[in-house]
Amino acid sequence: MSRLFLSSSFEDVAQFFPDVVGKDVEGKTACLIPTASNKDKINFFVNSDRNALNGMGIKVSDLDIAEASEQEIGDKLDEADFIFVSGGNTFYLLEEMRRSGAGRMIVEQINAGKPYIGASAGSVILSHDITYISPMDSSDVAPSLDGDFAALGVTDFSVLPHVGNIPFRKAANTILKTYGDQYDLRPISNNQVITVIDGQTQILTA
Predict the structure, then answer these.
(1) What keywords are assigned to this protein (predicted)?
(2) 47, 52, 125, 197: least buried by Cβ within 10 Å?
(3) Are residues 42 and 48 in contact, defined by beta-carbon separation less than 8 angstroms?
(4) Domain of residue 195, CATH code
């Protein structure tokens, strides 16, 4: 029953989202988790995500899992029609998902059928392990992980975002060369999205 919408840049592929969820999205609510961007000096992309959602008539409820209580996280996830995890540092995102319990709750929501939108780090985090993203993100901002980079394990593949896109082109190529034999990498550019609907996976290009 899972419905996943895994992108590098949501605003560039947002047009495909209503078809993936199979219903009119106007008036629905998305729980937007911007936490991965907390360690980024540049985080304009979070507002771009929010604007893209609003442009489809989706109401946005922000949830920073680095600040919210476990009760608040659970309540907001329950209340939302969609879960949106935006970009930033994937290692910091993993650290906060573990500490807060949000990771476990998000997996439960996905397994129960709630549509999940990932942008960049939000897509990577569904992999079984995020070691591969280290050429793109620094793990130094998440010291409590202590080298244990096991992630949410929702997908049996690993999204590689921003392929061919500045400023991540070199890092993405390094990941492909270094980890291509160890992970089932699914490279996507900013204008591509991986959709998973009840186990059926495809890549759409805008």
Answers:
(1) Glutamine amidotransferase, Hydrolase, Protease, Serine protease
(2) 47
(3) no
(4) 3.40.50.880
Which pTM does this prediction carry? 0.96
Q: Write out the residue range of the structural domain in which residue 40 sits.
A: 3-205
- Positions annotated as catalytic residues are 120, 162
Per-position pLDDT tens, the chain of length 206: 689 999 999 999 999 999 888 778 999 999 999 999 998 766 778 889 999 999 999 999 999 999 999 999 999 999 999 999 999 999 999 999 999 999 999 999 999 999 999 999 999 999 999 999 999 999 999 999 999 999 999 999 999 999 999 999 999 999 999 999 999 999 999 999 999 998 899 999 99
Region of residue 146 (phi > 0: left; psi between -120 and 50: alpha; otherwise: beta):
left
Total number of domains constituting the chain: 1
